[in-house]
């Protein structure tokens, strides 16, 4: 009897072990997703993860079509050895290394590439996560939807197109308020704070929760349209507005209205939550050159080889601050010294270069004065360990771009 009981116990144990193993295999993505999200802003190296997001999250592809638009090689520039940042000299090679740069590209307005280099295992075929650079894609899609009459006006309230938000903190917020990060919804985007709203948002995404449901939990702090406090959820709810207004998901709308028109070189994909909703706050993934094509589209006022893809007046409005809280400079009604447009940043002057910017130092930098687009993809492992420039290094990156623009602008 004792031997029989022992065999039974071993058999039960074997069944439990097999069951746990099968559960682990079935939940492999979710388990790894949780590890990924919990390691963010911890100093852990992220390069392998950032080029393999579809291993962690469900995604939806947006497919390229038609001839690839050629980005011809031009006379290559040599990067300057140093750049100046508020009186301090920085070595460019060291800065690129310290910020875990994976790609850097400089293109003239006609698409000519004057610099292109990859690091840390990336190459021209590597699709890389945009993070908040993707917000500027949402801006472009909103502009197209307005041009087509799918969204009647940026003055319309969000709930007109997203009745799911009625009775929430976003009830009473306009499309323009959300575009300008001026919703007035209470939000803490401190990446160094594990209890911040953005940290809770990330954990909700990792657990497979609905991002729309998460938006419903937020509270109102300011009158809409009065303060500019960065809030990734503002872009997220615009993704919901787009989907309801156009009848297409943001990735489907991007494919039809932009990706199929600008000669993209590769398919891209957009990260989803487990309900199939795009991470509109920053889930776009594409190659370095294709990020550059989007920047060139904006540099050329929304036109691509004679076709107006994004309305020219929308492009202009997107990088033209139109309210006090959006102006560059330190002020109490903004949480940044940079200016802001429609999900585009103005790092210096109102009429200067503008940029799409994502965490870990992702940039599409558009410089009309020098007729340039500069793209940088990175996995700055120090990013977000402090709630200031010491780990962000974003203002430093702009200073780097200014030095590159001076070099490229004087090259033949």
List its traits.
single chain; 412 residues; alpha+beta; 5-stranded antiparallel beta sheet; 4-stranded antiparallel beta sheet; 14 helices; 36% helix; globular
Walk me through what this model shows.
Helix content is 36%, strand content 15%. It is globular and about 55 Å long. A hairpin with a 3-residue loop joins strand 13 and strand 14. Helix 5 runs parallel beside helix 9 (232-246) and helix 5 packs across helix 10. By secondary structure, the protein is of the alpha+beta class. The strands form five sheets. A five-stranded antiparallel β-sheet has the order 5-4-15-14-13, sandwiched between helices. A four-stranded antiparallel β-sheet has the order 1-7-8-6. A two-stranded antiparallel sheet has the order 2-3. The model is unreliable at 17-26 (pLDDT under 50). It is built from 14 helices and 15 strands. It has helices at 2-26, 28-39, 47-50, 92-98, 133-147, 175-179, 197-206, 211-215, 232-246, 250-259, 288-299, 312-318, 389-392, 394-410; strands at 59-62, 82-85, 88-91, 101-108, 113-118, 128-129, 268-271, 284-286, 303-304, 307-308, 339-340, 345-346, 354-358, 362-367, 372-378.
Short summary of the structure?
The chain has 412 residues and is of the alpha+beta class.
What are the SSEs and their pairings?
Blueprint: H1 2-26, H2 28-39, H3 47-50, E1 59-62, E2 82-85, E3 88-91, H4 92-98, E4 101-108, E5 113-118, E6 128-129, H5 133-147, H6 175-179, H7 197-206, H8 211-215, H9 232-246, H10 250-259, E7 268-271, E8 284-286, H11 288-299, E9 303-304, E10 307-308, H12 312-318, E11 339-340, E12 345-346, E13 354-358, E14 362-367, E15 372-378, H13 389-392, H14 394-410
Antiparallel strand pairs: 1-7, 2-3, 4-5, 4-15, 6-8, 7-8, 9-10, 11-12, 13-14, 14-15
Helix pairs in contact: 5-9, 5-10
């Amino acid at each position: 009897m004792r031997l029989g009981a022992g065999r039974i116990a071993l058999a039960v144990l074997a069944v439990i072990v097999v069951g746990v193993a099968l559960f682990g295999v079935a939940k492999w993505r979710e388990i790894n997703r949780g590890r990924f999200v919990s390691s963010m802003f911890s100093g852990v190296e992220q390069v392998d993860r950032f080029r393999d997001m579809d291993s962690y999250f469900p995604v939806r592809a947006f497919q390229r079509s038609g001839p690839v638009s050629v980005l011809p090689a031009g006379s290559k520039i040599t990067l300057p050895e140093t750049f100046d940042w508020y009186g301090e000299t920085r070595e460019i090679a060291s800065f690129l290394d310290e910020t875990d740069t994976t790609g850097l590209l400089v293109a003239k307005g006609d698409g000519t590439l004057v610099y292109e280099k990859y690091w840390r295992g990336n190459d021209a075929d590597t699709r890389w996560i945009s993070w908040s650079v993707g917000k500027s894609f949402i801006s472009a899609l909103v502009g197209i939807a307005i041009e087509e009459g799918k969204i009647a006006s940026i003055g319309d309230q969000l709930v007109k197109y997203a009745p799911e938000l009625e009775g929430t903190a976003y009830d009473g917020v306009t499309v323009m308020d959300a575009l300008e990060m001026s919703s007035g919804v209470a939000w803490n985007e401190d990446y160094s704070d594990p209890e911040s709203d953005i940290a809770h948002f990330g954990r909700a995404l990792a657990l497979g929760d609905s991002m729309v449901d998460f938006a419903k939990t937020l509270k109102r702090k300011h009158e809409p349209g009065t303060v500019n406090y960065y809030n990734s959820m503002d872009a997220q709810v615009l993704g919901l507005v787009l989907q309801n207004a156009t009848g297409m998901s943001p990735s489907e709308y991007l494919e039809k209205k932009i990706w199929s028109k600008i000669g993209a070189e590769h398919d891209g994909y957009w990260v989803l939550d487990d309900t199939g909703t795009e991470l509109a706050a920053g889930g776009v993934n594409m190659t370095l050159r294709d990020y550059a094509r989007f920047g060139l589209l904006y540099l050329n006022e929304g036109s691509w080889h004679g076709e107006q893809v994004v309305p020219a007046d929308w492009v202009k409005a997107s990088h033209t601050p139109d309210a006090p809280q959006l102006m560059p400079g330190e002020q109490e009604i903004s949480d940044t010294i940079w200016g802001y447009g429609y999900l585009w940043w103005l790092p210096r002057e109102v009429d200067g270069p503008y940029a799409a910017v994502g965490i870990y130092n992702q940039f599409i930098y558009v410089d009309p004065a020098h007729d340039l687009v500069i793209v940088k993809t990175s996995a700055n492992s120090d990013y977000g360990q402090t709630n200031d420039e010491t780990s962000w290094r974003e203002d430093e990156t702009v200073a780097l771009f200014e030095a590159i623009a001076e070099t490229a602008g004087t090259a033949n």
